[in-house]
Amino acid sequence: MTAPTKPPHSTPPPTETAETAAAASSRGADLHAPVIDWFDENARDLPWRRPEAGAWGVMVSEFMLQQTPVNRVLPVYEQWLARWPRPADLAREAPGEAVRAWGRLGYPRRALRLHGAAAAITERHGGDVPSDHAQLLALPGIGEYTAAAVASFAYGRRHAVLDTNVRRVFARAVTGVRYPPNATTAAERRLARALLPEEEATAARWAAASMELGALVCTAKNETCHRCPIAAQCAWRLAGKPEHDGPPRRGQTYAGTDRQVRGKLLAVLRDARTPVEQAALDAVWHEPVQRARALDGLVSDGLVEPLPGGLYRLPSS
């Protein structure tokens, strides 16, 4: 029997479509000055950017800003720092208080992770947020992005800080595509490292400036290229702004989801200073199976603590 013929070998497509990370390294110098100069003139006056915020203020902001717009974060951030100006202040409280103070920011597991990080900072580092990237990464609830952001924004260290805004700026300006991949790739990390200025303070400024450019000018929709300091160099604009031809962009649905039900259940518990009866939770959602699934998920995530007698409360330990 004749073996099936193998298809001819094909070379996989390149991971950077416009230029390699090595070429980007030499090009980066042309991008740094205009973007940083633009940032110096246009950066928003945000409380976590002020010197008095300190490293703890930067860390709190980074937890809160994940998937949440600035205008929703600002009032909660200010209340949080007024109540817990240092990690040790938060660590002394029950984790349920962090969930309560998180309010309606969404994704409340971030509150538990921030509480866990505060406890670890207090125990391991004498209550001071560490400046070393590896020590930051070792804290509970801290991933690669947050560790790099805190080291860069709080301590002026040289790290590639890749949030959605930065990834979009790099995708358009350097790679020549409208949107970055849905999940951060190794190619994007190589590109970000290649674009980093060599001088540490400049690299930290570049990280903040490129992020602000993506937030204010190079937005996901209705980008304002006439305001962009690097429009003349942008590979995507020079190519005629080709439409996105990758996987569909992920939408964020909320109404009717388990996430909405979880939020309604947590709202009842946040407003209560004593344990809540099951009947009070049952009243927030009409569909019993989905309601029970959402409550079970909150318990499993450590956001709700069940008590004897069908009572529930925010976690106490």
Task: Outline the secondary-structure elements.
Layout (H helix, E strand, L loop, with lengths): L20 H22 L11 H12 L4 H14 L3 H5 L3 H8 L6 H16 L8 H5 L6 H12 L8 H12 L10 H10 L4 H17 L18 H4 L19 H14 L4 E2 H5 L5 H13 L4 E3 L3 E3 L4
Antiparallel strand pairs: 1-3, 2-3
Largest sheet features: 3 strands, antiparallel
The helicity comes to 40-55%
Which regions contain 5 or more consecutive residues with pLDDT less than 50? 1-19
Question: Count of helical segments?
Answer: 15
Q: Whole-number average pLDDT? A: 91
What is the alpha-carbon Rg in Å? 23 Å
The beta-strand count equals 3
Run of helices and strands: HHHHHHHHHHHHHEHHEE
Class of secondary structure makeup: mainly alpha
Fold and architecture overview:
Residues 1-19 have low confidence and may be disordered. The chain is mostly helical and 317 residues long. It has helices spanning 21-42, 54-65, 70-83, 87-91, 95-102, 109-124, 133-137, 144-155, 164-175, 186-195, 200-216, 235-238, 258-271, 278-282, 288-300; strands spanning 276-277, 305-307, 311-313. The protein has 15 helices and three strands. The protein is 53% helix and 3% strand.
